[in-house]
Amino acid sequence: MRHSRTILGVTILLWLAGALGWLPLAGLCTDARGASAFSTTFWVNTEYLLWLPKDSPMPVQLLTTGPEADPLPELPGLLNTETLFGGQPLDYPMTSGMRIEGGWWFSSAMPMAIEAGFFKLGERSTSYHGDGGENGQVFLGEPFFDANTGTPGFFPVSGSLGMTGVIDAQNSIGIWGWEANLAVAAYGFIGTAAHGLIGFRSVGVDEDLSIDSTIWNLEQGGGATFLGTSVDPSDRIQITDRFHAHNRFYGPQLGARLLWEVGPFMVTLLGKVAVGVSQELVIVEGASTLARSDSTLASAAGGVYAQASNMGRYFENEFAMVPEGRIDIGYNLSQNIQIHIGYTFLYWSNVVRPGDVVDPTINPAIVPTSAGYNQAAAAGSPSINFNGSDFWAQGGEVGLTVRF
Predict the structure, then answer these.
(1) To bridge 404 with a disulfide, which of 42, 85, 240, 299 should be the other Cys (CB 3.0-4.6 Å)?
(2) Torsion of CA 277, 279, 280, 285, to 10 degrees
(3) Is pLDDT at 3 greater than 60 in this prediction?
(4) ∠ at Cα 347 (342, 351), nearest 5°?
(5) Do 214 and 270 contact (CB within 8 A), yes or no?
(6) Does pLDDT of 15 surpass 50?
């Protein structure tokens, strides 16, 4: 609650800053477009970004292990059971990207400009690779809660029941955005400028959670089963779960930009707030495939966490706010060229993220690779969890501005 009040307070201040940017101060200066560094008609800014996105929530344990001495090493909740993937937020590494902006001032007699910008960060991911070993000496399992009994369980990947396998879990993210604004110049003193901004912006965040495993038996009658039947040791079972979360924000925005120029140096403060709709799309996919030694294939819908009960496309529209704050310090190499460094903080109040979508409560009878598979079982669980969250990205930038 305290965090929400802080965000709301910052949002209100930024909104007020945007409104204040429209105060009629243009009559206090000689050039209606402001400081000398912006007394040209057209400008282009390019920046290298190094940002850190907010970690990805992953409350569900997706892969566990434990020592061979335990009777059920992969069972969640036991003292020696270790979570290898999930169960806590997943940290993303710093992400490189680019931002391109440009603007055109109409004339000194009409202190207004059209501006547009676009940014994109490179895709980043966090992942884990688990290998049960040639003889299944490493215990790996995908934990769940039995929808029929409420007790914890696990689907073995390796180490149990005379089987082994490999598993790859990965969570990836991509971030981008664009905006277009009308800027109005308002000034108080020479070397100081204030610009009011009104416009429209869009932001996108795409995240994908994937879990891919391949399991096989080490001996006849082992625990690797397909549609309730143990498979031959020469066969392989491939299991796939996919959770895609696509977020799009669209909305009008207000903002203000303050500039101070002292000699060749310039400091720029920028605050903006957009209010609009957050379009949230979740796509859940799952499949299990039996690859036989004679090269024939058999497939069934559903992996482990993605089953007929929750697979599909789910869409919601939610109200959201996207405030952004930026500070830059620039050095004018000439009248037309400036280099600068800075910092940006971007916040998004309502998004859906793939880790929040996963439901660990599963009816094992509907899982194609479960030993207790029953084709007639009711597919009531897992369900779709459409839980909202927030998102932020922040970091530094280095840029070059050219004015014509």
Answers:
(1) 42
(2) 180
(3) no
(4) 145
(5) no
(6) no
Q: List the beta bridge partners of residue 155.
A: 142
Structure tokens at 85: 């993937």
- Token pair, residue 206, equals 């795409």
Cα distance between residue 56 and residue 354, in whole Å: 8
Gap between the Cα atoms of 79 and 77, Å rounded: 7
Q: What is the pLDDT of residue 40?
A: 59
Read off φ and ψ for residue 137, nearest 5 degrees.
Answer: -75, -15
The pLDDT of residue 14: 42
Other beta carbons within 10 Å of 6: 10
CA dihedral 7, 10, 12, 15 (to 10 degrees): -120
Q: How far apart, in whole angstroms, are the C-alpha atoms of residue 200 and residue 255?
A: 11
State both tokens at 119.
């940014």
Helix (H) or strand (E) holding 391: strand 388-403
Tens digits of per-residue pLDDT, 276-297?
999 999 999 999 999 999 999 9
CA distance 9 to 16: 11
Structure confidence by residue, pLDDT tens digits, 117-155? 999 999 999 999 999 998 888 999 999 999 989 899 999
Write phi, then psi, for 17 (nearest 5 degrees). -60, -40
What is d(CA 264, CA 250) in angstroms, rounded to the nearest whole number?
A: 38
Q: Please give the DSSP secondary-structure letter assigned to residue 89.
A: P
Strand partners, 156: 141
Summary mean pLDDT of the chain: 88
Dist CA 202 CA 7 (whole Å): 20
Residues contacting 64, CB < 8 A, separation 6+ = 74, 75, 76, 81, 82, 83, 84, 140, 141, 142, 143, 154
Q: Is there a contact between 205 and 177 (Cβ–Cβ < 8 Å)? A: no
Q: What is the pTM of this model?
A: 0.86
CB distance 233 to 217 below 8 Å: yes
Task: Give pLDDT tens digits for 24-43.
Answer: 323 223 343 444 444 558 99
CA–CA gap between residue 224 and residue 238 (Å, rounded): 11
One-letter amino acid for residue 71 of the chain: P
